[in-house]
Fold these 3 entries.
Entry 1:
Amino acid sequence: KRLVSGLSKTRANIVSGIDSIFSGFSSIDEDFYEEIEEILIMGDLGINATTSIIENLKKQVEEKRIKDPAECKKLLIDSIKQEMTVGNTEYEFENRKSVILVIGVNGVGKTTSVGKLAGKLKDQGKKVILAAADTFRAAAGEQLIQWANRAGVELIGGQPGADPASVVFDAVAAAKARNADILLCDTAGRLHNKKNLMEELRKIYRILEKEYPEAYLETLVVLDGTTGQNALAQARQFAEVAKVTGIILTKLDGTAKGGIAVAIHSELDIPVKYIGVGESIEDLEKFNAESFVNALFD
Ligand code: GDP
């Protein structure tokens, strides 16, 4: 339900166009494919994904000797789903001692997502410790305190400007002492200063390797879904400096650009693991390609 209403703008953007094609064409020809292609591109699915989806659709139409455009809808939906099943989509951190590093530039919804994720994992019965390792932005610490309270989890903080790696060091000690299941770290994301960011992440990775080698490590990048192709560019840049294992795509409730989720899978081979569909603590959903595409078309 939440997913369907959260994606309503994207749905309106893609579905109305697609439906008019299926009903407006009487035969399957190049124009028909071109119209579909245009809608997918307008829907922010990106050139790569769109090309491969159309190719797959054409192949299916030929193999199954389909003549009626209306029969192509299901094939199109299946082709989109297929395009999204890449990368490691397992939520391995849920089943063992884990550290989740969350990175992302200011304003994308990083702190909010960390808070929501803390609440979600706690609800699953996990012992969660939050680390406020984004010490660059003073307000982030304050905000995280509120989220920690809301989620009912312990927060390890640092003074504004403190070394993020030292916060992670303290947080690891706390996680071990309390026998926590998950250490969730709100980490920086100053992409405009790539060298510093790289250095900072390297230090954090080094501490985790040395102090907490038994923990499974997940690095999630938070991207703002309303920024469409920009989000994709950011993901690419983060993947250059960190061992990114998944993506949290936020603000899908406020945008018609939700198709970017397809582009991310297709272009980067990094799975979207969670999506944000609102501002409250329960508005973070595990991503599932099947239900995502169904919510857009059914
Ligand atoms: P940060 O600077 O990346 O830590 O971003 P914040 O977590 O402070 O979020 C920035 C703004 O985006 C806040 O007003 C959040 O409430 C809002 N926000 C975050 N995630 C979502 C979402 O999934 N949907 C909507 N509508 N707003 C969101």
Note: The first helix runs from residue 2 to 6.
Entry 2:
Amino acid sequence: MSFVVNDLSAGYGQLTALRNISFSIEPGEILAVIGANGAGKSTLLKTIAGQLTALTGSVVIDGEDVTKESANARARRGILMVPEGRRLFPSLTVKENLQLGTATGREGEWNLDTVCELFPLVAERLNRRAGQMSGGEQQATAIARALVGNPEVLMLDEISLGLAPAIVVELYDRLGEITKRGTTVILVEQDVKRAVSVADQVHCLLEGQTSLSGRNLDVAEIAAAYFGTG
Ligand code: ATP
């Protein structure tokens, strides 16, 4: 499934937080979006997901322009996001949270059993209330919830934020299992080294604009783009 973002701009009221962003991703690839606080990373993901209205440009999946579609309609096409802060329902059990993820109505490889195989720590906690779990367990549950919706494009917003290094390594280890089934991943990350280590291509944002993008970039180049000293 091809995925193209073309000339995308978005903002909040008078503020244009994202200007003229373009990229395309091949099936099964990982694109890392890198940038400092406030660079526009979450805004980009929200605009792709349809939670924010695009001011210019388009989001095209498998040749179809979805820019005017609602967030729900895009979710049914498999454009799914794990938001920053996870947003699980804390008083529901893990299993109930996962069941909500199936609301996309999409059939595919991922279901309760297969996500439990991918994340054993989720499998062990199915009847636990989500709010009672550790941050890492909650993050794994949030990713599993998106997966049971069988995404074509899975967007992950700062999954490592505030988590212990060991669990971050574990979460990143699972990305290969996700992409090898053809799912495209867009990863927002402040940890440049970690993002670059898994990404097929990198897109750097600086104050809402592309400062650098491409494949096989070196970390020094990316760091310069990140700080705007490139
Ligand atoms: P962070 O790493 O801090 O999440 P980010 O790169 O994801 O940063 P965004 O959250 O996309 O950045 O923010 C981009 C710009 O838009 C910032 O100037 C921010 O203050 C502004 N912004 C973000 N959300 C809103 C909102 N709901 N209302 C108004 N302005 C917002």
Note: The longest helix spans residues 165-179.
Entry 3:
Amino acid sequence: IPQERIRNFCIIAHIDHGKSTLADRLLEFTGTISQREMKEQVLDRMDIERERGITIKAQAVRMIYKADDGLEYLLNLIDTPGHVDFNYEVSRSLAACEGALLVVDATQGIEAQTLANTYLALEHNLEIIPVINKIDLPSAHPEEVKKEIEEVIGLPADDALLISAKEGIGIKEVLEAVVKKIPAPKGSEDDPLRALIFDSLYDSYKGAIAFVRVMEGSIKPGQTIKMMSTGKTFLVTEVGIFSPDMETTDCLRAGEVGYVVAGIKNVKDTRVGDTITDAERPAQNPLPGYKKAVPMVFSGMYPADGEDYEKLKEALEKLQLNDAALYFEPETSAALGFGFRCGFLGLLHMEIIQERLEREYDINMITTAPSVVYKIKKTDGEEIMVDNPTNFPDPSKIEYIEEPFVEAQIMLPTEYVGPVMELCQDKRGIFKDMQYINEKRVILRYHMPLLEIIYDFFDQLKSRTRGYASLDYEFIGYFKSDLCKVDILVNGEIVDALSFIVHKDKAYYRARQIVEKLKEVIPRQLFEIPIQAAIGGRIIARETIKALRKNVLAKCYGGDVTRKKKLLEKQKEGKKRMRQFGKVELPQEAFMSVLKMG
Ligand code: GTP
């Protein structure tokens, strides 16, 4: 199929607006997958994705479509992740396309990620085709949604397609629009090779496989390629396409989307956003926009059972094979022993990794409250980056501290503006502006510390708006803040893994909350346990856990043995996630309690 009949496109949408369902219908309609083979949402391959209904890894699939003009077209659909944590991956997937289907739920209207993704698509000069989905639902109001698209996004929406992905209504019209409206790729096959890596996958036989969009030139087996960000070279052994499983072909040409196998041992050598060129006839410049994925959120992960340390290490190594954005290094904590400091793109990324470690690798873990990365200027002039509160220098050695800020975009019904502004204020947000989407909904923009966003912001936003708000945010830079470290002492000793960073104005309040919370979650002992919060040695809050009088086993004295055994068994279970600290046992909740504060 000649280049002028190739269409590379993606689907952008807010979570749950029906992106995967539409993708499924397109695959079905083009006969790429027979209905029998059709598992729901084939594009979401990982179990966790399916369960949580979110798309994490970008995937691609090739379809052949015979259009109304009688010609066959080659359509490459590149799937994009919908969540803010993976914005950079979204941006790379978009860069691999010429057009995008903008799916908006007819009952919901545009949401935060609709807007964020559309702006990204516009930055990449994509042709955007508005598609209003779920018109089968009685509460659908497509005319209003059209108006929103025109007024808020500024895209003409008169001929927006009205479809139901679920019922299969309007699918053919979507394919016709892709063929008619999205431009064909332009790059020349005779130019030096430039291929954009938009995703990668680790295969135990083939190594790291790069998913690419060839912009100019071509790639075939036998060719030596070079990664432009690192200069490393590899010999191509296989190229192919996704239909939707990987299928070998003899060559990938300018305009095409496919995969490259080249004996690459490590996914770190197939960095998303990097440009592949020919080692013998290299292109002059890489494709624009390459950024190394930087972890923004850090947390400590410790095996609940110290013996699992090696197992945890191996599991992290395995996960990293497929996830170049996951960072980890060994760390030791006085309270938790040997473990790892792990870095993530965001909270969701962190939760996914934790869940996979527990579920797929069967490791019980104790995780510490997440932290952001602080920039600290010391009095001796040195500037350091600190991702763990434990490593904060002594306050007397700190000239100033900077913390990462984001611009948050919140969409919500007007009646909740009051409570949400209050929440943002409370989270140290700086109001930027408010824009009306229509008489019922608004967009609020705030500049806010990332730290406050990762502490419970989303949950509170949802509860204050009864689930009607959506949020998107973007890192904007480091700014000075008046922060301090609060240490927690249990039984007179600092528990390093419980130290946290807080704005000075809120230090007392949060210290109070956390000692109260710890009082609830730490089991009583035969002696009294003081719990204190301190800033640089000065105690600012205190609670006491009263001594326990009775023995748990006393109840079953003389009673039946199995019951006693069961009780002990149960205690052992509970202990797995406990940490002995001096004479005191700390449960997992203790380490996360810092998160659940207003
Ligand atoms: P993420 O992968 O989380 O970004 O979600 P998504 O945008 O891929 O949404 P998905 O396709 O998973 O659809 C979300 C929900 O909406 C599912 O329960 C679908 O069955 C439902 N849905 C999708 N399209 C339609 C439609 O046309 N009509 C109705 N009634 N429901 C739909």
Note: The pocket of guanosine-5'-triphosphate is lined by residues 13, 15-21, 53-55, 82, 133-134, 136-137, 164-166 (CB under 6 Å).
